[in-house]
Amino acid sequence: MRFQTPLEPATLIRRYKRFLADIRLEDGREAVAHCANPGSMMGLAEPGMRIWVEPNDDPKKKLKYGWRLVEHDTGHFTGVDTSVPNRALRAALEAGEVAGLEGYDSVRPEVKYGENSRIDFLLQGAGRRDAYVEVKSVTLMREAGMAEFPDSVTARGAKHLAELAAMARAGHRAVMLYLIQRTDARVFRLAEDIDPAYAAAFGAARAAGVEALAFDTAISPEGVTLGRAVAFG
Hints:
Blueprint: E1 8-16, E2 20-25, E3 30-35, E4 50-55, E5 65-71, E6 77-79, H1 84-94, E7 106-113, E8 117-124, E9 131-138, E10 140-143, E11 146-149, H2 155-169, E12 173-180, E13 187-190, H3 196-207, E14 211-220, E15 223-229, E16 231-232
Parallel strand pairs: 3-5, 9-12, 11-13, 12-14, 13-16
Antiparallel strand pairs: 1-2, 1-4, 2-3, 4-5, 5-6, 7-8, 8-9, 10-11, 14-15
Helix pairs in contact: 2-3
């Protein structure tokens, strides 16, 4: 998935009110960018960080920049826009490029299910069980090479796991897919110390038959594509 508009480098001045960031562009101009990430963004929102933003000229949008990437001193990238993984994953699912989830005839996003929820993707195919796929964006890294989720307490995430478990008990296929938006991750694990309730919900979901997958991504200012399967640590 390529970004719709070429990204521009900038320096982060500060992130505030979760969805706003003051930035300084390469030419010295300052602007406010939209930050499409409701999480804590631990380790990714330090003033002075080099970031990449996507400009837009849509008159309906109040902010003219969207924050998409962090570029680390190591040369690695982290994607901070939580809407990007679903767009990249949809393209991979429709192309049959997601190991373990290939061969379905239909890929439907945002389908209502459970208790007033929407599943990220419902996969359907003749002679196959429906597959309910929930996707979470992973950006946290506190130990080199180890990606973690979540980066803050997420009651909503625990609710999604419970609803996946209900689908599994009903005889459907249910999949929790963690999409790691970092180019420096080698292993994935749950951040149990940050949200023990989420970890408990994950264990209950797995016991009910929910599958768990993790994939990394190839990220650059040009775009984002699905990478390889990542082991659970």
